[in-house]
């Protein structure tokens, strides 16, 4: 197995992030919240919250963290299909958790779509507790946000 490097991502990684999300089957919204302007603004505000996994310089996994100052949120976890099952998502998740904890965050949440069984299994493996009494709502200005 080749060496996997976990590293913080920067605005120069933007195109690679979007490409990875698309290749991993994750919807990307490059005309909305995932536009270069929006994503790099988030990266500049919280540069420690964007993590990637690379093999020989190729981006093979991504996770994005965020925080409201009380809670931390992990989302947009994606790993290229051919590299799944090798613990990459776990390593990315642990790196993001560590960053949030260093920021003083004690509660970390992980949003997973109901039919994403591998991510649900990862969440359980890492000690996340599913809360069946919480319903997630969102309000968007457009389909791209």
Mean pLDDT: 92
Number of domains: 1
User: What spatial order of strands do you see in the largest sheet?
Assistant: 1-2-3-4-5
Shape: globular
Largest sheet: 5 strands, mixed
CATH class label: Alpha Beta
CATH architecture: 3-Layer(aba) Sandwich
CATH topology: Aminopeptidase
**Tally the helices: what do you get?**
4
Strand content: 15-25%
Notable traits:
5 strands, 145 residues, 5-stranded mixed sheet, Aminopeptidase, alpha+beta
Structural features, described:
It is a single chain. The protein is of the alpha+beta class and 145 residues long. The protein has one domain: Gcn5-related N-acetyltransferase (GNAT) (Aminopeptidase). It is built from 4 helices and 5 strands, in the order βααβββαβα. It has helices spanning 14-23, 36-45, 88-102, 117-125; strands spanning 5-8, 50-55, 58-67, 71-79, 107-110. It has a 5-stranded mixed sheet with strand order 1-2-3-4-5. The longest helix is centred in the middle third of the chain and has 15 residues, at 88-102. The radius of gyration is 15 Å and the shape is globular. It starts with a strand and ends in a 20-residue tail after the last helix. 23% of the residues are buried. The model has no long low-confidence stretch (mean pLDDT 92).
Secondary structure: elements and pairs:
Blueprint: E1 5-8, H1 14-23, H2 36-45, E2 50-55, E3 58-67, E4 71-79, H3 88-102, E5 107-110, H4 117-125
Parallel strand pairs: 4-5
Antiparallel strand pairs: 1-2, 2-3, 3-4
């Amino acid at each position: 197995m080749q060496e996997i490097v976990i590293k913080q991502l920067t605005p120069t990684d933007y195109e690679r992030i979007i490409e990875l999300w698309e290749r991993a089957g994750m919807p990307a919204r490059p005309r909305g919240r995932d536009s270069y302007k929006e994503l790099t603004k988030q990266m500049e505000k919280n540069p420690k919250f964007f993590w990637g996994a690379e093999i020989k310089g190729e981006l093979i996994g991504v996770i994005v963290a965020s925080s409201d100052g009380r809670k931390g949120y992990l989302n947009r976890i994606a790993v290229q299909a051919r590299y799944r099952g090798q613990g990459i998502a776990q390593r990315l998740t642990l790196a993001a958790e560590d960053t949030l904890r260093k920021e003083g965050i004690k509660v970390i949440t992980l949003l997973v779509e109901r039919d994403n069984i591998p991510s649900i299994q990862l969440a359980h493996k890492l000690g996340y507790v599913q809360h069946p009494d919480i319903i997630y709502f969102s309000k968007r200005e457009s389909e791209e946000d």
